[in-house]
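USER: Please consider what follows.
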Amino acid sequence: MNPTAPSIKGLIKIHNPDQPTLPVVNWRNAPAYRLSRLFTDKIIHLVPPPNSVNIKNTQDLLKILDDTPVLPHYALSSLDITNLYSNIPVKEIRTILASIMTQNLIDPQTKQELLKWYDVITKQNHFAYKEQNSNST
C-alpha cells in the first residue's frame, strides 16, 4: 500500500571480466507493481496465451512431469538459459498487444485503457545506465 522507489543491488559476475556486476532491481514496492499484476491478470483473461504453461515451483514441475506419459517416440531435451535478463522491445510488444486485442475483438475502450496501463508500467524507470533508460528500446 505504501509504494516506494525500487531498490537496486549489484551481483558480481566473476565469470565475465568485461561486465563485473549485474544490476538486480527489486520492483515489488514500486508504484506500478500492483498495476502490472492487474494488467497481467486482465490480459490473460481477455486474451489467453496459446500453449502457455506456468510452473509455480519445483514440486509443481515434478507433479506435471510425473503425470505426463512418456511415449516411445518422444525425445527429451534440456535447455540452458544463456541470457535471462534480455532486452525486451517495449514499443514492439505494445504494437503486438494492440493487434492481438483487435483480433480478439476486445472493445476499443478496454483496449485503449489496457494500452495506457502498459505505457504507465513500461515507462516507469527509476534507474539509468550511462544516462540511458532501460525502457528506451
